[in-house]
Amino acid sequence: MRIDILTLFPGMFMGPFSESILGRAVAARLVDFQIHDLRAWAHDRHRTADDVPFGGGPGMVLKPEPIFEAVDDIAEAGAEIVLLSPNGELLKQELVEQLAIQTHLVLICGHYEGVDERVADHLATRQISVGDYVLSGGEIPAMVVADAVVRLIPGALGCADSTREEAHSTGLLEYPQYTRPAVYRGIEVPAIVRSGDHQELARWKRRQALQRTRERRPDLLRPEHLEEMRQLGIDLSS
Ligand SMILES: C[S@@+](CC[C@H](N)C(=O)[O-])C[C@H]1O[C@@H](n2cnc3c(N)ncnc32)[C@H](O)[C@@H]1O
Question: 3-class SS at 229?
């Protein structure tokens, strides 16, 4: 997969893309990140990529020309052109899975007051928000998208099964995880986790995932989950 990122702050990507799973995926050539400074497509000698908003108002808006021309130069036919925006579709695991099967993503990072609307209307194939809050720029959202997508590329994680039961990939939050020591500061790991009874453990994990989702994210539960909880004898009255 190739991921091109258009930004006014290319230096922000140095650390996150060279460490951990992303760094390993780059080294293994599973992903090719290209970080581009939008100012390279500016038209004047001051390399201006932003301007004051028409009609007044605070802050600066990213100009359309550098963004359109950068995309003309770098995007392959069929590339997904993503504008990071708090006004976009909320990033969920289902959307991450759709992005992970693309061969080329172009991520456009806004900054300041935002991006000339013509980019959203006539260039981007998608607008994505990473949450219902406003960040200073699209760089951190682009890192979030890249990380979530790259870890789904086969071979990017150490263990092929690692994403199988993760939160959201099953439609539920994940069950609790524990490691050694079995007792720490007097707090014991549940006995079932150490019992070696794989069937019982699988049931316990499923129950935990259902209960935890019901407590913390009831919006994720589907009718079949409620039916399953009834069958498992989970009290749904409270
Ligand atoms: C300060 S924000 C602009 C906010 C804009 N004035 C508004 O109210 O919608 C600057 C840039 O940060 C990025 N950004 C901020 N919050 C975001 C979010 N929740 N998801 C994705 N991108 C975001 C976008 O690229 C945006 O253009």
Answer: helix
Contacts of 24 (CB under 8 A, 6+ apart): 156
- From the CA of 87, give the closest atom in ligand 1: 9
State the average pLDDT for the chain.
95
Together in a domain, 100 and 200: no
Q: Ligand 1 center to residue 110 CA distance, Å? A: 7
DSSP state of 115: B
Q: Are 129 and 90 in contact (CB under 8 A)?
A: yes
Check: CB of residue 149 under 8 Å from CB of residue 157. Answer: no
Tens-place pLDDT, residues 6-54: 999 999 999 999 999 999 999 999 999 999 999 999 999 999 999 999 9
**Domain range for 99:** 2-150
Cα of 139 from ligand 1 centre, angstroms: 10
CB of 98 shorter than 6 A to ligand 1 = no
Residue at 160 is within a domain = no
Answering whether pTM is above 0.90, one says yes
CATH of the domain at 230: 1.10.1270.20
At which of 127, 150, 173 does a domain end? 150
Number of domains in the chain: 2
pLDDT band per the 50, 70, 90 thresholds, residue 228: very high
Q: Which of 84, 129, 133 to mutate to test the pocket of ligand 1 (most atoms within 8 A of CB)?
A: 84
Are 34 and 98 contained in the same domain?
yes
